[in-house]
Amino acid sequence: PMYARAFQAAYPPASTFKPVVALTALTNGVITSKTLFNCPAKLKIGDTWMSNHSKYPEGDINVTRALARSNNVWFYQVGIKTKAEAFLEVAARLGFGSKTGLPLYNENAGIIPTNDLMRAELGRPITQGDTANFAIGQGMLQGTPLQVAQAMAGIANGTVLPQLRL
Asked: Which of 74, 79, 102, 117 lies at a 20 to 30 A Cα distance from 53?
C-alpha cells in the first residue's frame, strides 16, 4: 500500500505508446492520414516473425484504422520507416524518460532506449527488431502511468505539454 505505482513503477507503455509513433510519423512527413500499409497477421523482421495481436490479416489500413485497431504490424512498419531515434525523441519531449517535476518521493524517470544504452546493456545498437518492438511500446522502453497520462494530455493539447499539478 505504500508503493505508489502511478509514479514509482515503470512499465512498458504497450499500446498507449502507439499515438507517439503515429504523431511522429505524421509530423515528420513519413506518412499522411491517407497512407496505407498492408497488414498481414505477422511480419518477418530480420529472422523473427512478429505478430499482430488479432492473429488475422487486416489488409491495407491507414493511421486512423491502425490506432483504432491497435494494429501491431502497421506500427512495426511505420516505426521502422520513421526510425526509433525520431519517435523516441518525441517521446522524450512528451515527458517519457524524465521525472514529471511534481514534488514526489522516489519518482521513477522511466527509460528511453538509446544506442549508447543498448550498447551498454546488450552490446549492440538499436536494431530494426528493437525499433519495431519500441513502436508498439515494448522492449527496454519504460514509463510510469503518470508519464503516459501526461503524454496523452500533451498529444490531445496539440501544442504544449501540460505541467502536472497536485
From this structure: 117
d(CA 88, CA 82): 10
- Look at residue 106 in the predicted model and tell me its pLDDT: 95
CA 127, CA 10: separation in Å to the nearest integer? 23
pTM for the structure as a whole = 0.95
Q: Look up residue 118 and give its amino acid.
A: M
Beta bridge partners of 59: 39
Transcribe 88-106 into DSSP letters. HHHHHHTTTTS--SS--TT
pLDDT of residue 7: 96
pLDDT digits (tens, 9 = 90+) for 37-62: 999 999 999 999 999 998 899 999 99
Q: Name residue 111's beta-bridge partners.
A: 142
d(CA 147, CA 9): 11
Q: Cell 523516441, residue?
A: 88
* Cell 514509463 -> residue: 143
Query: With the C-alpha atoms ordered 89, 90, 93, 96, is the resulting torsion angle positive or negative?
Result: negative
* Residues marked as catalytic: 15
* Residue 145: its H or E element: helix 145-157
Spatial distance between the Cα atoms of 162 and 138, rounded to a whole number of angstroms = 25
Q: How far apart are CA 11 and CA 86, in angstroms?
A: 21
